[in-house]
Amino acid sequence: MTDTQNKFKEYLNKLAQYEQVIALLQWDLKTAAPENGTASKIEALSFFSTEYFRLMTAEEFGSLLKALSAPEEFDSLNDAMKITVTRYFRDYQKSKNIPEDFFTEYVNASAHSEQAWEAAKRASDYSIFLPHLQKMIDMTKQKIAFTDPGKEIYDVLLDTYEEGMDSATIDRLFEEVKKELVPLLQKIKSAPEPDSSIFNAHYDIDSQKHLQDFLLSYIGFSHKSGNTAESEHPFTLSLGLGDSRVTNHYSLNDPISAIFSAIHEGGHAIFEQNINPSFEKTAAASVNLLGLHESQSRFYENILGRNIHFWEPIYEKLGEFLPKFKEISLEDFCREINHVKCSFIRTEADELTYPFHIILRYEIEKAIFREGVTADKLPELWNQKMEEMLGIVPSNDAEGILQDMHWSDGSFGYFPTYLLGTIYDGMFLEQIEKELGSLDSILAEGRISQVTKWLNENIHQYGSLYTSKEVIQRVCSREISAEPIIRYFKEKYSKIYNL
Ligand code: ZN
After folding, report:
1. Which residues of 144-182 are buried (b: 16+ CB within 10 A; e: fewer)?
2. Among 45, 72, 92, 485, which one is least packed by beta carbons within 10 Å?
3. How far is the CA of 267 from the centre of ligand 1 (A)?
4. Residues 110-139 pLDDT 10s
5. Residues 115, 405: Cα–Cα separation, whole Å
């Protein structure tokens, strides 16, 4: 190893120690810190985050990256190090182009905008949020003019959350999903709805937690490389390799939501837990490909967890943890977890209507950054698209445009990754069945560990070494297509709804 490479390794080690502290503080803030302890934790978090940002933009780091980018050094690096140098050098150059006073103003505006969004959502009053949202839109455009001069703004935004992805590809995929799923949804809407009243009961919270531990182990989550806690919204947090934690939110009346959050977050964590250990402290170990990450959580939650055969070997167990389920048949349970209903809130949407919530947001983001549509026009556009796709119109902005926080802190281009993940899932499912045989049989026979092993070997171990497009090409030997997931939806729901 050359002298520069040694110094770089030391530098990466320093970054990793800051990452540990930052992640620990985040975990503590969201799961454990008492009310009177939050202010000091937030102060520490902001201190370490600022220091981390300084390290990532320091001249010393820049010269190391520059030296390692030279062919004589670069060619001798392993793949994980190559990715690390390339990605960090790109980010370094981008952030160097942002003037410091602009950066401070942006951070400030984003904090105010988040607060305004919260207040607006509480009051269901879009006018409180409107000026802040417009400012975030304008500042996002300015920021990209600094970091990526001359490039198409929305494509730069998409690339931030899913490297290598572009709107031409997404247009093609989403258009196809929309075209094929609208008629399917129309048919389902005219079919009779299942009766959900049999689920009315109290479900002990401790028992729900024990059920979660069981389910996590069942799908392949390692309790030695992760643990669980409670938080307002479920999430997964990685504290380096060998430590991926998940949270959940429990409700006394509705165990189903917590069951599927557990499986979803478990899918994220299983990905993190199985990254190649030799990638430790490199950029390949942090998976900032959000579409790929979401493909794994949704694969477990929907493709596996909402399949009746997933429950066959373990349905009795469900009744042992939550006795009410002894009175409910497996068929009724599966009918309920696949209940299609057009609703307003994205995070509560079922598997089939969820894609429409994402397409709506994608089309609005394009309208903002391509057609220059201003923030005052957005609620109307939102409601119009909601009616066009789902046939319902929100009665207020809290259940319409104000429901998600993403735009308040400037996370434009994030939403499409949710549906991209689902589209990738269709392709992974097709490939798994080609290689391992029918998924229904694998699940019915309790051989789910074979699926997890396949995902470990084909996807998880590589972390973010490859972009999602590259992963698909490597694993499925073809270009991304929405056709497999559309076929999956049609077959599955035609059967459930007797269409
Ligand atoms: Zn997720």
Report:
1. beebbeeeebbbbbbbbbbbebebebbeebbebbbebbe
2. 72
3. 8
4. 989 999 999 999 999 999 999 999 999 999
5. 10
5-32 pLDDT, tens per residue?
999 999 999 999 999 999 999 999 999 9
The active-site residue out of 265, 294, 351, 363 is 265
Instruction: Kindly tell me if the per-residue pLDDT of 46 is higher than 90.
Output: no
| Strand, coil or helix: 121 | helix
Q: What is the DSSP letter of 466?
A: S
On the question of pLDDT at 192 being above 90, the answer is: no
What average pLDDT score do residues 330-341 get? 96
Q: How far apart are CA 490 and CA 352, in angstroms?
A: 10
Which residue's entry shows tokens 């694998």?
A: 442
Which domains are seen in the chain, by residue range? Answer: 3-152 (1.20.58), 167-496 (1.10.1370.30)
Residue appearing with tokens 């729900």: 208
Can you give the pLDDT at residue 100?
85
> CA 254, CA 205: separation in Å to the nearest integer?
10
Distance 290 CA to ligand 1 centre (A): 9
Average of per-residue pLDDT values in the chain = 96
Overall size of the chain counted in residues: 499
How many angstroms does the Cα of residue 78 sit away from the middle of ligand 1? 30
**What is the tally of helices (H) and strands (E) in the chain?**
22, 3
Two structure tokens written together for 475? 């694993």
Q: Which two tokens stand for residue 3?
A: 């002298």
CB 126 within 8 A of CB 120: yes
Q: Is 265 a catalytic residue?
A: yes
pLDDT reported for residue 194: 85
- Nearest Cα to Cα of residue 118 among 460, 485, 403, 473: 403
Q: What is the pLDDT of residue 107?
A: 87
* pLDDT tens digits along 269-292: 999 999 999 999 999 999 999 999
- Label residue 226 by pLDDT band (50, 70, 90): very high
Could you please report the per-residue DSSP string of 45-111?
A: HHHHHHHHHHHHH-HHHHHHHHHHHSHHHHTTS-HHHHHHHHHHHHHHHHHHTS-HHHHHHHHHHHH
Q: Which residues does 23 contact at the CB level (< 8 Å), separation at least 6?
A: 237, 238, 239, 240
Look at the block and give the residue holding tokens 């620990």.
Answer: 24
Sign of CA dihedral 481, 487, 493, 494: positive
- CA 25 to centroid of ligand 1, rounded, Å: 21
